[in-house]
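Narrative of activities, Objective 1.

The group set out to show that a structural description can be obtained from nothing but a protein's sequence at a throughput compatible with the screening campaign. Below is one input-output pair from the validation batch, recorded exactly as produced.
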Amino acid sequence: MPEPDVIYSIFQKLRSRFPGFSADASGERHLYLNSGAGSLTVDSCLRAVNTEGSVLNPMPGQITPPEIQTRQFQQQVRQLVADFLGAASPEEISFHFSTTAALFNLAIALRSLFKPGKNLIVTDLDHFANISPWEMIATWQGAETRRVRLNSDLTLDSGHLVSQLDHNTVLVALTGASNVLGTIVPLTDLVSEIKQKSPALVVVDAVHLAPHAPVDVREIGCDFLTFSGYKIFGPMIGLLYSRKEIQDRIAPYRVETNKEKSPFCWEQGMLPNLQLAGLKGALNYLLEVGRAASPGDSSAPARRTFRRALEAIKRYEQDLSLYFLERLKKIGSSRLKLYGIDSPGRVTSRTPTFALELAGLSPSELKKMFWERGRIIIADGNHYSAVVVRHLQKSALNRVSLAHYDGPDSIDLFFDCLENIISH
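Output recorded for this entry:
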């Protein structure tokens, strides 16, 4: 592997922050290689739920001390998320049951845009949470849905996307990174080109990108962006960024007595304070990583600290990807196939998420064998990115997805077990 960077130097300490890394709640040992489905939960998230989350008032307010504390707490979490995303203000951040729920809420809020004669664009690379809501609203309202195909290397065909744009395009839905292949989309350049050629709003699903690389909504230039708390080492909660300048174009479903202005108009009922506490604990962990990555600048603003954390994680995970590809090449079995970017020279264009197939075994059979022979947890299925899988004329694929708490030892255990399966 390349020379270790700062994240590698504190790697063992970071791994110890995740109680579920090597054993489940009953103490049975395992190796979790399914972070793409949901990351392990960091200890500061769990502590925050049990401490800060347990004493909050159900409702925020401005008179009694408990409700004032709750109001201030909720605003603190909004600000942390805004800093994590590089948003202009916490009022651009709303909380939802999940990212899928956030995207359906967004589709309903934008329903008036999808008139007959108008069109919207989705891509074959996306998770279905960023396809189904748009197909649904287009069908309801009489708009046209246009789909963007994949290149032969399973990257997004940006040229095809641009060719689909016209003055009647009202929305383009993009992913930050493929949930099944790990392929990263060059969002900043692509969004800039979209904005030059059409009046479309741009929605980005950053669920798979957020734990692996910095996300900055103002650099990207998108109008909306979503991600999930449970993919960044925290609880199950969905986050939606909505750019302030387009707030007058939305009409979210809301209870009549709820506030009309953003972010409150997005949030249907009281906020889940326990999940918010856990999210705060997870984001504080990433701030700790950022300070550890740049110990000489411990007083830097939160946005800069988040960026340093994710830049360091990205560099470390690129090393993991290089090592994974190296071990894959050494196997040399014609039965084994990797889908997606497999060139070490293009490792900066992927996350450490790998879609695999072993001829002679179904994905469910291979998953079962990894568990029975190595107590290793991998994924099988379409991973909610069914269009990619259908494009390959498959019904399912196996997926191995790593995070920064993994190391070369995780990869060695995986490939040792895979070699055992192939040879027997």
